[in-house]
Amino acid sequence: MGFRIIVTKDNNELYLELNIFYNIGLIITGILGFIFNSFFSYIIWKEKLWKQSIQFVFQILSSGSGIVWGIRNIIISILNLTLFDSSILSYDFTICRIKTVTDVLIMFIFASSFGYIMMSFTLLIKFPFFFKHYLDNAKNNKYIVIFTIFIAIICDVMYIWDVNDTKANKNCNIYSFAGHIFEICYMGFIISTIIVSMPIFIYGFYNVMKLNLDETVKSNVIRLSNYMNVVYVTFWIIPYIVIIISFFLKSDRFFIGLFYDVCVFSLGIIVVIDFIIAFLFNKQVKDAALILLKQKNKITSITKPRN
């Protein structure tokens, strides 16, 4: 069985995960996502940044799920390239169920923590007193982590309970196995998230532009805000809006499933970009990263044997 440069099965159903370029992209983003998020998590833990701001608690959740998502992408893409055949009309139900249940859990934790980071950034800019005195304190850390994981597990249990277990031919992704109740709730959640988040982020960007800071500092804050919003809109809002439109137009489930594959790929890109943006525009992260890299280089130079 050779590599495939196709996006369809032999029965002409769209299935992006059979595409060689898609899977190579998953491998690349998976490796980079694993490396970057592992380093990011190490920085936060080693330098105890999680004690300095609740934003880094959110980031631990985001980076932790980013690590798992990177591993997931590497494994799935290798399986797609080496084991799966385009002539197979439907894959093993149990394997696909495990895969999709895992995807729901990781995606919810990552999406929630990424949303927390962006919303807390807006609150920090506009309501610094409220943020520092009521939100940004150590006692909230464990509650946020527990709440996020609890809700993610509840969503996963709901997905398992309402899973569409028909043996009909289907793609091996979340949407293909989603039951009707979960599908309605999930679409409602996406629509609600977009409706609530967009005004918040626009409002946050507006207040960033009005900040009275040193020009250099203000420039970095504005660029950080711009990059976060561009990433959010490009890799979250647009793909999911397409899914919502397809859902209301009653498009073929395989067609909607194709856009879920696109969302999976876009999530892999966010997992990679997340650390890059933080390193470039977050002084705490950049300083801590450079310190750790210098320490490692110093240790390497000391332990390196001389000729």
UniProtKB/TrEMBL annotation:
This protein's name: G_PROTEIN_RECEP_F1_2 domain-containing protein
Superkingdom of the organism of origin: Eukaryota
Membrane-crossing residue ranges in chain numbering: 20-44, 56-84, 104-131, 143-161, 181-206, 227-249, 255-281
Keyword Transmembrane helix: yes
Keyword terms, alphabetized: Membrane, Transmembrane, Transmembrane helix
Region forming the signal peptide: none
